[in-house]
Amino acid sequence: MPPNLTGYYRFVSQENMDNYLRALDINVVLRKLVCLLKPDKEIIHTGDHMVIRTITSLRDYVMDFDLGVQFEEDLGPVDGRKCQTTVSWDGDQLVCEQLGEKRNRGWRHWLEGDQLHLRMTAEDEVCIQVFQKVK
């Protein structure tokens, strides 16, 4: 049975964010700004429904979805694109596939103890973020 990811998580670290954003064609000024942000995550996981809020001082981003059901995701706040997105479980990892203009776009969330890990991919770039559960 997959884990319940419900909780509030504070940013701990990230690797390779600039190259990941470059793969999404984000301009240099916005890349530098995003690399300075320390986002928090709030996840509400109820059965097959999830809400994932990424919270920053600049802007929040909310994903509200049903597991295994494809939906159109408006990534305007991120890079101005729309994707056909499906989120499902692969063992204990929550996996998101974002089909659109960019190849190999998506992410994975998983828990290691009380830390939430996020692996984001776009083209050939991978960015890893780690968050600490606080409640």
TrEMBL record:
GO MF term list: lipid binding
Similarity section: Belongs to the calycin superfamily. Fatty-acid binding protein (FABP) family.
Quaternary structure (record): Monomer.
The protein's name: RET5 protein
